[in-house]
Structure formats: C-alpha cells, structure tokens
Recover the amino acids of this structure.
C-alpha cells in the first residue's frame, strides 16, 4: 500500500544524494574528477539498487563501483550544462520534496498509531463469522477415455464392486489412481467436473465428460471450508487496517482544511457525425 510512495522517495533520496555537499568521513572507494565516492555512497547505492531491481543476489563490487562512477559522470556533466538551473529540474525537485514530506508524515502517523496482534486478532474475530466460506466436497473419481467404459464402471459399482479397486485398475489419472481415485476435499473450482458436485447426493456416483475424458465421480461427503487461520491472514488484515488508518488521517486533515476543487468536469465532446454525402455536379 505504501510502496509506491516509498519507492518514489527512495529514488528521490538517491538523486538528492548526488548533490549533497556534506562532509563524509566514510572511507573512499573511488574518485571521479574532484568528487570522492565513499563507502557510505557505496552502501546507499546497493540499498537503492536492491529496492529498484528487487534482487537480493550479491553483485560483484566492481560492477557496483562502475555503476556509481558512471552515474557520477552523468551528474557532473548535468551540472556543467546547468541542468540544475532549469525550470524542468526545479519542478521535478519540488515534486520529489512533496513526495518525501508526504511519506515521512504518513510514516510518523502510522508509528504513532501502531496496530498490534491483539487489534488484528480482534478484527479477525469480527470478520470471520461474517465470511461465507465455500463448500468443499470429498470426492473420488475414475478417468477413462470413453462413455462406454464409464458406463461399464458404473455398472460394476452398482453390482457392489469397490470404487478403489476399479480406480487402481482402470483410471487414467496417475496421480489419484494409486489412492483409489481419492481427490480428498476439493472446491467446485478445483476440479474439471466441479459443476456436477453441488447437485450430487452423498454416497452416490455420476458420469460426466470433460476435456480430459469421461469421469466416474463418487461424492463421499460435503462441508463448509474451514476458515483461514489467523496467522495466514494477519498481514492482509494489517494492510487493510493501515489503509483504514490512513483514510482516517486524511479525513482529519480535510475536516480542518479549506479545500476547493477549481477544475470542473470537462464536457464530453459531441459525437462527430459523418458529413452528409452530396451528389457530384453533373458534367
């Protein structure tokens, strides 16, 4: 949720660092003309690169230093050309400043209003009873090539033969046949023949065709899906609650501010009509 703002500010800090003139006691790693690049610059460069590239693999230090040197050469050339004096630079710098201020203000507000595990568990306990969990079905199936083969298996089941024995002997589904055709608990979305499950009776079997072939499906039981455990959704809950917290923060600011939207909705352009065709004058 906060990443777009954070990424902007990270890049911004990276850019602004090139123009800082503060003394740095960090050990030097390279020198470009009169500018010394330090170990601190090196560490910052790696941190920013990891954020931008999203890669945690170690990089050859020579490659890092080469990148730092190349960037510094471009920065020095930009300063020589007076890019920092241009209107475009001033606008971008102002936008960067605004993003950094907003990011820091948001972080401070979030830090002053921490969301602990107790608050997350309370919200979890409030939400879970309201969530309608999908049905799950305990099913077995036997996959064959033809309708005739499926009908023959159905007849064998009616005659009292065991489903597991028939699955091991005849099913084309290598993954489930060794388990007697057992697919365990599934939802309708999880299997190709899911559309048949809701109408089936426990202990009964049916035949159905999918792109994989013909299935003999046995429904053993049904249940409501268990609710996801707290730990598995805790981070999602925190993101949701932080979003609510930020909405509250913005709401508080708007209450004490005078906001006037000056830009009006632009009228939609009238639909263009094709010009009427006219006959060419007779010659």
């Amino acid at each position: 949720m906060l990443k777009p703002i954070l990424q902007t500010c990270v890049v911004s800090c990276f850019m602004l660092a090139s123009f800082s003139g503060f003394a740095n006691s960090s050990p030097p790693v390279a020198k470009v003309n009169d500018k010394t690049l330090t170990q601190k610059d090196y560490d910052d460069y790696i941190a920013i690169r990891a954020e931008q590239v999203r890669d945690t693999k170690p990089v050859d230090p020579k490659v890092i230093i080469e990148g730092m040197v190349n960037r510094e050469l471009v920065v020095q050339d930009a300063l020589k050309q007076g890019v920092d004096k241009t209107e475009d630079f001033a606008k971008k710098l102002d936008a960067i400043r605004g993003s950094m201020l907003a990011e820091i203000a948001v972080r401070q507000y979030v830090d002053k209003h921490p969301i602990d595990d107790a608050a997350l568990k309370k919200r979890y306990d409030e939400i879970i009873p309201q969530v309608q969990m999908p049905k799950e079905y305990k099913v077995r199936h036997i996959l064959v090539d033809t309708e005739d083969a499926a009908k023959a298996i159905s007849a064998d089941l009616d005659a009292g033969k065991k489903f597991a024995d028939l699955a091991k002997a005849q099913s084309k589904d290598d993954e489930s046949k060794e388990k007697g055709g057992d697919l365990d608990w599934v939802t309708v979305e999880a299997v190709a023949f899911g559309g048949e499950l809701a109408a089936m009776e426990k202990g009964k079997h049916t035949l159905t065709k999918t792109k994989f072939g013909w299935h003999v499906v046995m429904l053993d039981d049904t249940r409501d899906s268990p609710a996801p455990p707290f730990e598995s959704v805790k981070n999602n809950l925190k993101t949701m609650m932080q979003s609510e917290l930020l909405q509250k923060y913005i709401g508080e600011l708007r209450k004490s501010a005078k906001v006037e939207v000056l830009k009006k909705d632009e009228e939609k352009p009238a639909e263009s009509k094709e010009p009427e065709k006219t006959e060419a004058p007779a010659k």
Notes: Residues 135-224 form a domain with the Chitinase A; domain 3 fold (CATH 3.10.50.40).
